[in-house]
Amino acid sequence: MSNIDFLIFVIYFFLLISIGVLGVVKAKSSKKYMLADSNLGVFMLFGCLTAVFLGGSSTIGSSQLGYEIGFSGFWFVFALGAGITIFGLLFLNRILNMEVITISELLYKLFGSKVRIIGALVTAIYTLMISVTQVIAIGSLISVIFHWNMPTSILVGGSVVFIYTILGGMWTLSITDFIQFTVMTVGMFLIMLPVSVHSVGGFGSLFSEMPSSHLSFMNIGFNEIFNYFITYTLGVMVGQDIWQRFFTGKTKRVAKTSGILVGIYSALYSIVMVIIGMCAYVLFPNIQNTQNVFMHMAFETLQPGLLGIVFAALAAAIMSTASGTLLASATIIANDLLKPFFFKNIEDKMFLLLTRITTLCLAIIAIVIAMSIKEVLVAIDIAYAILTGAIFMPIMLGIFFKWITGRAAFLAILVSIITVFLSLIIVGPSSTGTIIYAIILNILTLLGISYYDNNVAKKKNSIDSTRTE
Known about the structure:
By secondary structure, the protein is mainly alpha-helical. It has helices spanning 3-26, 30-35, 42-53, 56-69, 74-90, 92-97, 103-111, 113-146, 150-199, 203-209, 222-237, 240-246, 252-283, 293-301, 306-342, 348-372, 377-400, 406-426, 434-468.
């Protein structure tokens, strides 16, 4: 990297921290800190929604899949974007009408305190673990750029992200995420893609050099594609970080329109990253560690100045997800565990301080975890399996069917968590059936226990009515 590349990167980090400092002045209420006062228009909300789900795994992972399997790597990111679009079109209205700000708060309104607690724990752990992976990713990027060791890189990168998040909350994230969305779009669509395609001699040359399997969108098979949609589409639909972004929209129409745009953008972004990976396959067919495909391609093909912008774009993808998931985890803990059980009568200013302190504590925990472990992909798979398998059906069935009982929801979540862990022990973390087993047992428990509870309640009401007569 040249001096201009280093300068671009440092200026970008300084800009993000400056916006965080400004956020201290702007975010004067808990609602503004958690939801940016629910005042975003279509373009801003679209940018923020896109930035929060397109992280390091979406960018680096999709180019890796393009290198390994070609166009069928498209389905990974598209499944994520499709979940956001479906949620916005089919479920957002009902959830907004319930006037909640967290998933666990919705579970409380549907099923009571016990379900709220277990739901809060599951979603908070999930969002925190996603944040940890992004901290590791930004640490890896900084380590490559500045040649620092990983602990130092994680500390610096994580601190930059978490400082502006702690200071300004969602108000800051609404600004920084839109900036990061813009940088991502410029870096990947207008720089990295054209340079990569030009480096292999154009699209015609690229496709002629590809194995036929790499040119098929169905190369990985229907079962794997189906697993992507079960795991990621359903998981995103009950992701606190996604809900929180939707809640910042000015109107329901704004939120729905933004959700549709996210689905379109996710398809385009996925294609772009896959093509970059395919270009790397042509130019560098012997890359041993395919996780380094994107970085290798950037270093070998980009000119000074452009390299700094693209690395800033990669950092933007990683940091927007890290900040959004950290704030989501802090919101759940502060709003659904601390406030209702320990600080019931707290004033809004003190609750804002409590939320900032919670965000700080979680930021420290995330950095410590990131510095302590090297591989968290298995942990993320477990977290996704628990989130989707345990939380999705109680929320969706609870919204549409009022006869689902609180006891059924609690037991269904518990059964699903146990199922996930048993499946991991017996079958292993690579099993595609884990989430399906969990969802099926979740549904059976919800319906079976609810049916039993309602019958018991009817009999009791009948006996009480007879006694009264």
